[in-house]
C-alpha cells in the first residue's frame, strides 16, 4: 500500500503468509461469518499484542504490511505507515471490516453516503457527507458494506501501526480520486493486485 494505494497492500512488500505467533482465537459462533464486532475484537486484541506489533518491519520510505490469520476466514493485515502516507479514497465492495491504531495516530476521512455500485465514473457529492475522525493508539472503528474512506498518517515525524480485518476477504477495492465534491472512479483492484 503506497501513498496512492490501499487499505490493503500492494504486491511489492506484501507477504501472504500469516504472521507466525498470532492466530485468531476469538470464540466465533460455529460456522457463522464474523460480524463487525468480532472483527473489531480481533483487531483490538492484535493491537494490544506488543510482540506482534514490534514484529512489523518499518520502512521510512513506504508502508509495510504483514498478513495475519483473521477470525472465521477473514482477511487481516498489520500495517506500518510512515509519516505523510495514506491510502487514497477507496471502498471494500461487499466486505465489512474493522481497523484500529496500535501506535502513533491515524486519521480517517469517510463518506456518510452509499455510492451507487456500478455504472458511473464521476459523482458529485452533496454537502455534509464528509466525516473525519482521529484515531490515536487504541482507537479504531468497524464499518459496514460499501464503506468509502481514506486513511492517513498526518504526523510529520512519527510512524503509525494499525491492524485491519475484512470479511469476506476483499473481492475487490475500488479506488477514487477526489477533487472537492467530485469523486471519480480511477481503478478497480482485485486480490491478485495485492496478494
Ligand atoms: Fe480501507
Automatic annotation (TrEMBL):
Any Pfam family hit: CDO_I
Example of a GO MF term: dioxygenase activity
Domain of life: Bacteria
Entry-linked InterPro entries: CDO_1 (IPR010300), RmlC-like_jellyroll (IPR014710), RmlC_Cupin_sf (IPR011051)
UniProt keyword annotation of Cell membrane present: no
Keywords tagged on the record: Dioxygenase, Iron, Metal-binding, Oxidoreductase
Protein family membership: Belongs to the cysteine dioxygenase family.
Name of the protein described by the UniProt record: Cysteine dioxygenase
Organism listed in the record: Streptomyces composti
